[in-house]
Design a protein that fits this description.
single chain; mainly alpha; Serine Threonine Protein Phosphatase 5, Tetratricopeptide repeat; Arc Repressor Mutant; 2 domains; two-stranded antiparallel sheet; 65% helix; globular
Length: 303
């Protein structure tokens, strides 16, 4: 029965299982097997979200957005929706798109709204597809209004014949029959683009070291992370265990579908999650970089 199931879930949650914590949060939110409590639901959702549970991250975002068990905060809602969207959660992608569309919890941005609504629509989110059409119309009307304001003496007949186009990205999507390309049949040019996202939680110190090394090498953070993944996979490097750390930062690593697939297979071979495998690879890469720098400094000193 529901009460017994809740008891078993509580035992699993006490042992740190994120999925159990999320399920308990859901039970509290609807009163299934336990007395309904928005505050308790938020507590368990938050605990699971801290472990990177994607559904929990989205649930925490909803709690902040709708004042469920916690003081309403559009900024916090956007933050947690962004965490979940970075892991490909379709409803979170739609939520982030809406936040940018309406300027809720974040500065309004039509370009960002289009980006996230497109991601959700590509996964079949019907409301996201409809919102993209609305966004295209809004931009078209805004451009027409701006033309009239900046050119008050413009001949109306000529103006009516002038075709006002939305931004290039919207134009391509807007002219297609189905508004968006079929996500199951990507074009050749899209297959190797960095469209996959991996959510990575790091300590502030580790993130600073990553940025420092990337800067020294003259490349950006994403390029260096991609090179570490490719090098470790190609050389079949066995990951080493490193001390536990306090993860205070969250970043989204963009990878091509092929590289993401290889990363997941490699991590599975070592019985690790992709994010955990990448963290160990980063620790090893940073240690190797430090050793090379130390060697280079010693050689320079001796010379």
């Amino acid at each position: 029965n529901a009460e017994k199931a809740f008891e078993y879930l509580s035992s699993a949650a006490a042992q740190g299982f994120a999925a159990a914590k999320y399920t308990i949060g859901f039970c509290y939110s609807v009163g299934d097997g336990v007395e309904q409590s928005a505050e308790k639901a938020f507590e368990y959702f938050s605990s699971a979200a801290a472990q990177g549970h994607v559904d929990a991250e989205y649930a925490v975002g909803l709690c902040y957005l709708e004042d469920r068990g916690v003081e309403q905060s559009a900024e916090k809602a956007f933050e947690y929706f962004s965490f979940a969207a970075a892991q490909g959660h379709v409803d979170a992608e739609y939520a982030v798109g809406l936040c940018y569309f309406e300027g809720r919890g974040v500065m309004q941005s039509a370009e960002k709204a289009f980006e996230y609504l497109s991601l959700a629509a590509a996964q079949g989110h019907v409301d996201a597809k409809q919102k993209l059409i609305e966004l295209a119309e809004d931009l078209k009307n805004e451009v027409n209004l701006r033309v009239k304001e900046e050119n008050p003496n413009l001949d109306r007949n000529k103006a009516s014949k002038t075709k006002i186009k939305p931004p290039q990205k919207l134009t391509r999507a807007y002219r297609r029959k189905n508004e968006l390309p079929n996500p199951d049949k990507p074009s050749d040019s899209e297959e190797n683009r960095a469209t996959e996202k991996l959510q990575l939680r790091l300590s502030e110190e580790l993130l600073n070291n990553i940025d420092k090394v990337a800067n020294n090498l003259g490349i950006n953070r994403t390029e260096w992370l991609q090179s570490i993944i490719e090098t470790n996979i190609a050389n079949n490097i066995i990951p080493q265990k490193f001390p536990e750390f306090q993860a205070t930062k969250s970043i989204a690593v963009r990878l091509s579908p092929d590289l993401m697939k290889s990363l997941k297979l490699t991590a599975k071979t070592h019985s690790m999650k992709p994010s955990a495998w990448l963290r160990t690879a980063l620790h090893a890469a940073l240690a190797d970089y430090d050793n090379k720098q130390l060697l280079a400094n010693n050689i320079s000193f001796e010379n």
